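Deliverable D5.2: sample structural annotation.
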Amino acid sequence: MAKAELFQKDIPAEERVFYYTSEEDDPIKTEEQEKKQKVLLPEGYEYIPKNPFVRLYSSILFRLFWIFGQWYERHYWQAKFYGREKLKKAKGKGYVIYANHTNPFHDVFGPALAADRRIFTIISPVNLKIPGIGKYLPMIGGIPLGTNDAEKKAMNEAVDKRLRQKNALVIYPEAHVWPYSTKIRTFPAGGKSFKYAVRNDLPIFTMTTTYHKRTKNKKGDLPRMDIFVDGPFYPEKSKSAEENQEILAKKAYDSMVKYSKKNTYEYFKYIKK
């Protein structure tokens, strides 16, 4: 089954099963992942473009992306958002959103609608090779993970700058997409992905997508979505950076588990071998 077909049309029930041995197994693999290639960024890659026309183009493209996302989320997925008012508690400062990774198309648009400002999302550099849309992902806020020391340094500087600009940073701590999963998986990197909020002394929020039967369904068995925002959760000044990373990771995980219990429909089954 092709990746796009998993999310753009109903598929037979017998094909909606994934047998796994570890929560780090990947149900969807790109050609680069299959070949285990290390995807390098283009030489001279700019995490934050210096050209003002490129920055203007990026701003316009993000706005168009947000407008289309409104239709896509609310019409295609019948998505409903809850808890967005909690984001007001982070007024005047940047913040980080941690979300469950269950639908690569919704995961692009959903946080942009949940957030109350522009978002920037940490993505795998493999995504830049997606035909058609890959090269535009940085224009709408994609921040590819660095693959060598120089790239990692530039990426971290860009993330910190975007947060200082009071934007929202989006991270998927489960790492791999599990289509329509109703389970929150443990975070492979533990608390490491929480370093951005800790070192910038900023709050985090969670965004948990849940799945439900449609009342009027012209798309077969495809589910609809409810999305829950929770937080803020702050680093504790009395704790070390490493302690805060683990504390925030646990708070995010517990929050996402709590809201995952609101799932009422298991469209895709995951069975451990």
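Annotation notes: The mean pLDDT is 89. The beta strands are 17-20, 80-82, 95-99, 119-123, 142-144, 168-171, 204-212, 224-233, 269-272.
The annotation will be released with the project's public dataset once the embargo ends.
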